[in-house]
Fold each of these.
Amino acid sequence: MELVLAIAIGVLFSCGIWLVLRPRSFQVIMGLMLFSYAVNLFIFITGRLWLDKPPLTTQPGPIDPGLYADPLPQALVLTAIVIGFASTALYLVVLLGSRGLTGTDHVDGKEREKQE
């Protein structure tokens, strides 16, 4: 299972790098989203995969940490998903505004010079 997740993280990250290096703004945004997915998976995996283990306990007395899942990576990933969604929405609004002003979504603007 760890090998499959490591390969998935590597594929997401490498596809994100490829998209970030593309000349169009929308592809750069998609690459940043893939980066965030790869980082979210990495953070989630650092908490280990537990099956049928509760994240919290209400029992008094000493606690055996081996019996419970770590809730911190889950909380971090949930927060990262919300922040990533908000920043992606902001990027898309800025992208649409710049496309409306320049007429292109090229990062360097060379496509508009070719059209004129």
Amino acid sequence: MTKPSHARGALAAMYAGLALTVLATIATYVDRSTTHLLADHIRAGYPAYPQARVDSAVTTYLVVLSVVGALGVLAWLVTAWAVTAGRRWARPAVTAMFLLGTGVGLTGLLTKDTSGTTGLPPALGWAGMIPCLAGFVAVALLWRRPRLT
């Protein structure tokens, strides 16, 4: 049986979101070994921190963002499977995961820490929001009414 075109499009958006989630998660590790945006951001917010404390904060962020990324990957895979399998709960589950993922992304992007600045540098915060665009497309395609021909 062939999937309706809106389901195929939604699955494509979901796999794009999966790839974007993996890339956003990897970006934190690339930053740690190259640009040091996160470390510089923490250092700017807490100039009195010794290097060891900055490194500890960076490691904590990497662990948290890795767990969020892994849960995001799991959510993409489970919801893509549900859409592929034609489960009745797929559309509400995709919608719920989109809302949850967007909430987590906005939290990372906008939450200020005790220094008065956001916890994440803007570049990493926005990187965490990019997979939400694919989630929005997937939700829109799944809830679209099929065309009558």
